[in-house]
């Protein structure tokens, strides 16, 4: 038995609250986070809400869980419901989202200069942090559009799942950094030819950069930074607005975990990180919990009965079943202990358990079964 009993996480209460506009699912990889996000989206749609599920995970798990072949950067209608709701889904395309920002916030000539710039093309595809910046931007776009009354976000399967929370600060450091100011100096002093007019210290640094990176690369970067200056300023402001939106009461963070040591440790990290950033945590979903229909038969009694039958050479099939039950109960006991550690460390965090399923989810019927289990979960361990 657990030393403490966790409060029960009531999922329908979250989904039925019309003031809840954003649900963010976060957690480590391989714990059923994407399936949970998709199931919550379907459940909300079937209760009358207009929902979009946004996955920031570049894998195709969301599309697969909904029985779709692919998703892209545009919300796609998955299904409408008898309750008047609708479910949409999309997968973040960070480069396309970056392009959309440029096209929306720059005049046509400047947009063309940026989009064709070699440095921008590299930045928008592979620069560290771009995915997090674009996740914040896309979430803000979806919320400002007013088309959906609930947005469910499926974050990447790692600790970097919460890196998008750092997007405004990291973007500010990038824009205000010494290197960017240095590269902006020629444009602000009168264009690329103004390199020659700047002081000797700047000329020395510029010369060193040119030797390391090459003159054309320096030129590309300067042109990019000069053209993008006004656009990035607006992006930083929007990212900060979205960050504040995530802290507001209309947002609910759900940590998704499996009842295993590493996954529960990651869950603790997420809970602590969200508290540090003052993000509203709704609770934790523990997926793939192993239970037995014969829970009243302990592992010890089952093992003893199996040993007795085997020693007498009788009912060997029954003995084999008892051995399987023994293993199942021992696994369940280990899972209870891992959850016990979490609850002891975070006794006020609401918790729901979802039993392990025999198959992966590949269609809406499968998602509906998961959604039902989320809404009527197992009693938390120790209850």
From TrEMBL:
SUPFAM superfamilies per the UniProt record, alphabetical: P-loop containing nucleoside triphosphate hydrolases
Domain of life: Bacteria
All residue ranges annotated as the ArsA/GET3 Anion-transporting ATPase-like domain in the record: 20-289
One function term, GO molecular function aspect: ATP binding
InterPro entries: ArsA/GET3_ATPase-like, ATPase_ArsA/GET3, P-loop_NTPase
CDD domains noted in UniProt: ArsA
Protein known as: Anion-transporting ArsA/GET3 family ATPase
Organism per entry: Thermocatellispora tengchongensis
């Amino acid at each position: 038995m657990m030393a403490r009993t966790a409060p029960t996480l009531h999922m329908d209460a979250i989904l039925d609250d019309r003031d809840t506009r954003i649900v963010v699912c976060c957690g480590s990889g391989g714990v059923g986070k994407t399936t949970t996000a998709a199931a919550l989206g379907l459940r909300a749609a079937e209760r009358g809400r207009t929902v979009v599920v946004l996955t920031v995970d570049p894998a195709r798990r969301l599309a697969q869980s909904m029985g779709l072949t692919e998703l892209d950067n545009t919300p796609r209608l998955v299904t409408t419901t008898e309750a008047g709701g609708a479910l949409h889904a999309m997968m973040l395309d960070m480069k396309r989202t970056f392009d959309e920002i440029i096209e929306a916030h720059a005049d046509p000539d400047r947009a063309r200069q940026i989009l064709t710039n070699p440095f921008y093309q590299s930045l928008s595809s592979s620069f560290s942090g771009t995915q997090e910046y674009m996740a914040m931007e896309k979430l803000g776009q979806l919320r400002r559009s007013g088309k959906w009354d609930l947005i469910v976000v499926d974050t990447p399967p790692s600790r970097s799942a919460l890196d998008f929370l750092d997007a405004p600060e990291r973007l500010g450091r990038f824009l205000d950094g010494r290197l960017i100011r240095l590269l902006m100096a020629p444009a602000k002093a009168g264009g690329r030819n103004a390199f020659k007019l700047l002081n000797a210290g700047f000329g020395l640094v510029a010369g060193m950069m040119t030797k390391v990176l090459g003159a054309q690369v320096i030129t590309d970067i300067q042109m990019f930074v000069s053209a993008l200056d006004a656009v990035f300023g607006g992006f930083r402001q929007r990212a900060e607005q979205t960050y504040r939106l995530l802290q507001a009461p209309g947002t609910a963070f759900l940590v998704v975990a499996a009842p295993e040591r590493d996954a529960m440790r990651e869950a603790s990290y997420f809970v602590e990180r969200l508290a540090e950033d003052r993000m509203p945590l709704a609770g934790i979903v523990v997926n793939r919990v192993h239970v037995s229909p014969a829970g009243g038969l302990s592992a010890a009694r089952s093992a003893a009965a199996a040993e007795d039958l085997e020693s007498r050479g009788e009912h060997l099939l029954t003995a084999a079943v008892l051995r399987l039950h023994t293993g199942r109960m021992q696994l369940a006991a280990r899972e209870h202990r891992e959850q016990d550690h979490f609850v002891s460390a975070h006794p006020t965090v609401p918790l729901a358990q979802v039993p392990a399923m025999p198959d992966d989810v590949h269609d809406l019927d499968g998602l509906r079964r998961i959604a039902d289990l989320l809404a009527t979960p197992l009693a938390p361990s120790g209850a």
